[in-house]
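Continuing the series of single-chain predictions for the mutant panel. This is the parent chain; the variants come on the following pages.
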Amino acid sequence: MDIRDLEYFLACCKAESFTAAAREVHIVQSAMSCAIARLEQDLGAPLFDRTVTPIALTEQGAALKAAAQRIIDAVQAAREEVAAVSGQVRGTVTLGSTLHTGRLDLACVLADIRERHPGMVVKLRQSKAGSEGLVHAVRDGSVDIALTASTNEPPKGIVLHPLFSEPMVFVCRPDHPLSQRPSVAVPDLREEMILRPPPGWGTRTIIDAALGATRSAFEVADYALMSRLVRARFATTLAPASAIGGEMLAGLRAVPVDDARLRWTLSAAVCTDRRMTAATTVLLDTLTRRSHACPQELATGLTRVFPLVLGVRDNGDLGEGTRLATATGAYVCFEDEAGQSLRPSKARTWARCGRTPSTGPHSSTGSSPRPGSPSNPNRPSVVSR
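Parent structure:
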């Protein structure tokens, strides 16, 4: 019995077609048929029912499937142990991911792995099925690890490794009645038309738990489209603080929500019923390390300042703005009525917030009059990091 034939057999089990399986493993269909025929001759039993479409496993084929997977896993483990003696990690790992990963930069994760372990192959599968679909993909073995925002109790055999958490914000137009508040509460949103992601998404579960389920037909799976709909006065929305930012937030307000239930958490889901390969372990460790190394701020500099006004209006006294910024981990800036952000007159204000301003369109090097003074009527605001 040839190991390669067992791999081809498992490919047929997954594809339910000799032709599709041959395409998946990059051989011709006749070679696939010959491999299955060799196995059937060796075992003295038919493995597939070829009279139906798609092909179906026979009782003997179903028995071989579990045994073949154990053999392939054992062979892979042997290869990894030999490679580990030389300090190498080889193998292929499939990573499922939500479309939004917050401040976790997947490009840095993949580049890090390629630099440290050039023998590893990471297959990235971004899914629109939502967090629940990704968890089930880990359970059935379609992916080895999944980045998910699921808040439900995971199925048996699935473990969620939390990577980081961030608050959700209420996104609206600047002329919305709630836009100038320091924060909003769930009762304030009861009468709002809130755009929600489709069922199965982590954010949908969070919003439904806080505001109640809805039969609204307006389910949007794209944060960019959400921001355009809000800008067009179609509705408002709730989203992770990192989801709608930069250019997407232009002309909008993101108001903090004072409710502990409205937090978005990204986790790495793995299956404990299967042996984790060395490649899978490396990927999980890299995701964990990179998520912990991510900067806590959601904006990377002052050249693109998020217009998130927390409603700090203290007649030019920087004390309250600085206190709130320090407490919330936000930048303090001053924004005029046209939405132009100006550098505060005292750099120590930025230092107390944990960062000094960089040069750029929103951080002039010249001094500014004291905000709130007769020569500068700009109102203070706090801009989310």
